[in-house]
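User:
I would dearly like some help making sense of a protein record. Take your time, and here it is.
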Amino acid sequence: MTGTETVLGAPVERREGREKVTGTARYAAEYDAPRAQAWPVPAAVARGRVTGVDPAPALALPGVLAVLTHENAPRLGDPDDPTLALLQSPHVPHRGWFVGLVVAETLEAARAGAAAVRVTYEAEDHDVTLTASHPQAYVPESANGGFPAVTEHGDPDGAFASSATRLDVEYRVPPLHNHPMEPHTSTARWDGDRLTVHSSSQGTSAVRAELARMFEMPEDRITVLAEHVGGGFGSKGTPRPDVVLAAMAARETGRPVTVALPRRYLPAVVGHRAPTLHRLRLGADAGGRLTSLVHEVTTHTSRVKEFVEQAAVPARVMYATPALRTLHRVARLDVPTPSWMRAPGECPGMYALESAVDELAVELGMDPVELRIRNEPETEPDSGKPFSSRHLVECLREGARRFGWEGRDPRPGPRGTGPLLVGSGVAAATYPVLVSPCAASARALPDGGFLVRVNATDIGTGARTVCAQVAADALGVPLDRVRIEVADSDIGFAPMAGGSSGTASWGWAVHEACVRLTGRLAEHAGPLPDEGIAAGADTSGTADAESPYARHAFGAHFAEVTVDTVTGEVRVTRLLGVFAAGRILNARTARSQFIGGMTMGLGMALTEDSTVDPAFGDFTESDLASYHVPAHADVATVEAHWVDEEDAHLNPMGSKGIGEIGIVGSAAAVGNAVHHATGIRFRELPLTPDRVLTGLLEHEHPAGMLGT
């Protein structure tokens, strides 16, 4: 792509693609050779305190350099995130909490040393089991993102009681884990009083700020780099233990140190999607219009830090109803601290809501697409604000057309050939438009090129490429004349790659810097000076200004499944998504993001499951051998499309985030398709063969008849 007429929206290949496929892209564990390696020591009790540490067996091993524990680790400043107060006290808040770190010449020696450290504990009684009626559950002041924990309009209980059709159902979503391809890794090096860190992080600015706070030093003496990041899905959105431990160990040993967290340790220390227990009550009149909607969620958090999955929030956005209540309750348990995972809140919340809407459609004898369209709101139900744009109806209709929905037999129940039952389902999707202030600069060079610098983090989404497209469009030059530098905290402040806000935030600053640069160039006569001409932008006060509009992306998912009545296995034969996400800035990377999210939702529906062991207090599915993520073979056909959407109330590019809208609703579409195929409503994820087969057998032989 060398022209300018279609630079935004064009399917441009990712700039770092060749580096990644040839293996020359360097990740956080691939810097500063030679360097020492470190391996953490996780706590072996679910709650208690360390009563003794014997490092001698580890220090006696060849290559072991140091053993850090709460007894000898340097004292750090109080972190903004309490999960980073590592090796500062003997307290053990949950199983897997790090109680030691072994530093050695090699990774093998560090691992052997960690296994040799002898730790004794005083264990305390623990509670790790979440129930909807947990006696310690409370209503917090707010949920994640600062959303009010409770909202209420009208008289939802009275309206529900008087509704012609009523639905009162419960859904369960288990704990889920991010499991990025590259585990959480950092390499730290001290040069006198300067600290340089290569970190696998979704945002270098946040990492630098936390390190400055904890090591009590100015931010300008810290450089954090994240040139290539192998995924994150939210788990790298804030600093994690690896970066603190690496900086600590490097300072103590006087040499560069890499901390690469073992995958089986990740569920305990880098966050997880908390389990959510949902109760939904939907009331409707005879024409299918909602008269009442109540969505109540119970979830867990740790005793280290409160994090409340905002799973009832999407119900405040989706459907018109005169009576609405949403409520969150949370129980503090002796569990690892939950955190962000792709589309926190919207992902589990929309699974429950869209499954319940499907149930209501069956009760009413209505087509589920038509039921959603019939309850389309004119303004955002919760705030009353007008939508900046909302094309959910178009997504539903276009998806139905592409999927062939019109020919669908609406009756749920067995259909198919041989042992395979066939069904299809639909679900809607929403995700908010988020944007944050950012700094960027653009420089015109004497050779005719342009250098754009923005501290964006490319976690595999194509951020480099899209930001370069934004720059080329604003400058009015061919794309190949734009060079871009990213993921360096010294460039300037930038928000993390998360909340589907990255491109909107970074791109806004890049656009403004390039527009200012074109103005300066228009005023300049003659050749450029050797250093070129530069302009900068800081979108503080504009990007974060309050909007009079409710800004959201929307979408619709359609799924076709087969259910094997012999094995209970569910296979997805078709997955289709149609989205309204503002202006699509790169057709190639956008489609990849949509499909990636949809496939992750498929995994949530069918394979991904985690349980907290009540006896030991840890997650039993702690690696990819037991926590099953979907593979290519798990979906025969997956397609993503979008509707053209003009929205003048977003940012200079007119774009909405796309990283998370793809997962929202995907699991519900699959679950609704399984109900359509079997006539059985499964209300707990995932739909594994054992769970489905049990349901099929119980449906065929009701209670009291099994075994006869």
Notes: The longest helix spans residues 502-523. Residues 704-708 have pLDDT under 50 and may be disordered. Residues 466 and 540 are 21 Å apart (CA to CA). The chain is about 25% helix and 25% strand.
